[in-house]
């Protein structure tokens, strides 16, 4: 992924216009020249601040990280590579860092596997994927930057010693690059090769993200008989106008029934095409069919093929990558979450930036219309002290504190119920063209409603001066009900607004309300809250930095600010231990 291009949310663009270049750079906006922050790229962290560092999410000892790269399971070991700056806490000097694990929770950090060293990657070693070739031989495909103009080529690397259980050393053969863009391709928008798959014709296939004519996103396909000589297909696997550049594409099959993963590319499966939008800083995916003879992907009718399409996560989640895990017959997704403080100097001061989110199992919902995600089961080994609530009624304006655990580092699962939908607020038709987060911005947790808002107030002070509410709100539309899930960071910290990106993230939840129940799981880890609504149908990640609600001073509440009484049917909450990460 190219973090040096202009990437921004609409909010960040507004800040830039208002400030008129007072802020030229942030973790959400990075200009190609790097003039503002180049002096920070190689400023080694002397003191690493522990406040807001996560306890059970993956992050290195210090400095900047971004995209998860080439996750794979090989000979009993999970491998995670990721974009890393070994010399500073802002983007730059990127290498492929490498960590290994037996359980996706506890990790051993190794020496970087790939770093700029040859003409085909001397200006950068950017994102890519891993493929296990016949004979049980892993290979990495990655994007190399060959010049100061950011010309991008596709390279490969192989383990130096297959008998090494950790695959510590990787070799970049001299026959690189494998793929060079032809004249029809934008050479500066040509990156992030996917995991390869073999068709029934015995040819390998991969896809790269690209851009045509400033607005059409492309998934460019290449084929190869031997994995060494690649030929561009006459047409892309898929393309869409009006989306802007596609990066970090992912293309994989999902079974029609059940939650098991699939590692075959036959026409009996559904397929997922995901692209990361470097304009919006969000990802979206579609579900559809793959014509294996024509090598064409076609989204299903109703699967929105644009910025307003489905997302793996409606919050701070980007550059995701899936892999098939044969040890548990599942597909697992990794995602990166960057910091939400605006100025790079903030990250430089604390000595670190970026985390990898908890890996999630992913599968097709029984409706066939969307994916479902859930934290990998291994995470539950970190659960310690447990508390429970049941059959607790909350009237309008009431809250109950969840005590007996560590609220700053916790795992919470709760099921809410209600007796009637009669008080559901009307859904304003004008909201149909708005993003869910815009509706959440209008209808926050402190705005009284009918059925909702109800949910959890996380990383909260005792009197809620600081808190990040994660909540449901139900609306009555013309023909059905709409369920909104919000993770609202507006009051997450008392730190000045101009130094912090405090946004209301939200997504609609496609759920049947016949049983009048809604479930929520939130993983709370000091500066990150990952939430899973309705069993993982809608997921939202927020990054927050409270000034008061930290460590033992943090509180956790369940609340209801709707006129319809809500019952906490069950609430299970655990303190979470620390993951063991060997640096």
TrEMBL record:
<dbReference type="Pfam" id="PF08244">
    <property type="entry name" value="Glyco_hydro_32C"/>
</dbReference>
<dbReference type="GO" id="GO:0016798">
    <property type="term" value="F:hydrolase activity, acting on glycosyl bonds"/>
</dbReference>
<dbReference type="InterPro" id="IPR013189">
    <property type="entry name" value="Glyco_hydro_32_C"/>
</dbReference>
<feature type="domain" description="Glycosyl hydrolase family 32 N-terminal">
    <location>
        <begin position="57"/>
        <end position="375"/>
    </location>
</feature>
<dbReference type="InterPro" id="IPR018053">
    <property type="entry name" value="Glyco_hydro_32_AS"/>
</dbReference>
<dbReference type="InterPro" id="IPR001362">
    <property type="entry name" value="Glyco_hydro_32"/>
</dbReference>
<keyword id="KW-0326">Glycosidase</keyword>
<feature type="domain" description="Glycosyl hydrolase family 32 C-terminal">
    <location>
        <begin position="378"/>
        <end position="575"/>
    </location>
</feature>
<comment type="similarity">
    <text>Belongs to the glycosyl hydrolase 32 family.</text>
</comment>
<dbReference type="InterPro" id="IPR013320">
    <property type="entry name" value="ConA-like_dom_sf"/>
</dbReference>
<dbReference type="InterPro" id="IPR013148">
    <property type="entry name" value="Glyco_hydro_32_N"/>
</dbReference>
<dbReference type="InterPro" id="IPR050551">
    <property type="entry name" value="Fructan_Metab_Enzymes"/>
</dbReference>
<dbReference type="Pfam" id="PF00251">
    <property type="entry name" value="Glyco_hydro_32N"/>
</dbReference>
<protein>
    <recommendedName>
        <fullName>Beta-fructofuranosidase</fullName>
    </recommendedName>
</protein>
<comment type="subunit">
    <text>May be present in two forms, a 70 kDa monomer and a heterodimer of the 30 kDa and 38 kDa subunits. The ratio of the levels of the two forms within cells appears to be regulated developmentally.</text>
</comment>
<keyword id="KW-0378">Hydrolase</keyword>
<dbReference type="InterPro" id="IPR023296">
    <property type="entry name" value="Glyco_hydro_beta-prop_sf"/>
</dbReference>
């Amino acid at each position: 992924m190219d973090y040096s291009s202009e990437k921004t949310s609409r909010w960040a663009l507004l800040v830039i216009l208002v400030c008129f270049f007072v802020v030229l750079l942030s973790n959400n906006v990075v200009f190609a020249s790097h003039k503002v922050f180049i002096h920070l790229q190689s400023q080694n962290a002397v003191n690493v601040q522990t406040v807001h560092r996560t306890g059970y999410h993956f992050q290195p000892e210090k400095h900047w990280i971004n995209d998860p790269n080439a996750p794979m399971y090989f000979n009993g070991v999970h491998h995670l590579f990721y974009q890393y700056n070994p010399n500073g806490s802002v983007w730059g000097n990127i290498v492929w860092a490498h960590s290994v694990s037996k359980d996706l929770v506890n990790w051993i950090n190794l020496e970087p596997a790939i770093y700029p060293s040859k003409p085909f990657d001397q200006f950068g070693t950017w994102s890519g994927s891993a493929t296990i070739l016949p004979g049980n031989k892993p290979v990495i495909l990655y994007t190399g930057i060959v010049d100061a103009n950011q010309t991008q080529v596709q390279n490969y690397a192989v383990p130096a010693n297959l008998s090494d259980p950790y695959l510590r050393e990787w070799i970049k053969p001299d026959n690189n690059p494998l793929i060079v863009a032809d004249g029809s391709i934008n050479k500066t928008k040509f990156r992030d090769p996917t995991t390869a798959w073999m068709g029934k014709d015995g040819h390998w296939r991969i896809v790269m993200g690209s851009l045509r004519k400033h607005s059409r996103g492309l998934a460019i396909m290449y084929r190869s008989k031997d994995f060494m000589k690649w030929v561009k297909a006459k047409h892309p696997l898929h393309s869409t106008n009006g989306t802007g550049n596609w990066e970090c594409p992912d293309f994989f099959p999902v079974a029609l029934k059940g939650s098991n993963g699939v590692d075959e590319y036959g026409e009996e499966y559904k397929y997922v095409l995901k692209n990361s939008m470097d304009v919006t800083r969000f990802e979206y995916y579609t579900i559809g069919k793959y014509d294996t003879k024509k090598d064409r992907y076609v989204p299903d009718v109703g699967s929105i093929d644009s910025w307003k399409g489905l997302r793996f996560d409606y919050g701070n989640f980007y550059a995701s990558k899936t892999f098939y895990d044969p040890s548990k017959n599942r597909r697992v997704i990794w995602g990166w979450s960057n910091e939400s403080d605006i100025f790079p100097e903030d990250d430089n001061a604390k000595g670190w930036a970026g985390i990898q989110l908890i890996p999630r199992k992913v599968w097709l919902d029984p409706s066939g219309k969307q994916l479902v995600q859930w934290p990998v089961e291994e995470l539950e080994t970190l659960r310690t002290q447990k508390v429970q609530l049941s059959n607790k009624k909350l009237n309008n304006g009431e809250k109950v504190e969840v005590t007996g655990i560590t609220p700053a580092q916790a795992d919470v699962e709760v099921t809410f119920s209600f007796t009637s939908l009669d008080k559901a607020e009307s859904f304003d038709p004008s909201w149909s063209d708005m993003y869910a987060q815009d509706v959440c911005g209008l209808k926050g947790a402190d705005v009284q409603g009918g059925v909702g808002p109800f949910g959890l107030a996380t990383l909260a002070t005792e009197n809620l001066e600081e808190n990040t509410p994660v909540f449901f709100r139900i609306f009555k539309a013309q023909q059905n009900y709409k369920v909104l899930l919000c993770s609202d960071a507006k009051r997450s910290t008392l730190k000045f607004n101009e130094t912090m990106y405090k946004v209301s993230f939200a997504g609609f939840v496609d759920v049947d309300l016949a049983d009048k129940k809604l479930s929520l799981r939130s993983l709370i880890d000091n500066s990150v809250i990952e939430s899973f609504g309705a069993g993982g149908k809608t997921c939202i990640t927020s990054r927050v930095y409270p000034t008061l609600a930290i460590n033992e001073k943090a509180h956790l509440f369940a609340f209801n600010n709707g006129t319809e009484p809500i019952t906490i049917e069950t609430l299970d909450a655990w303190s979470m231990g620390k993951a063991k990460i060997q640096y």
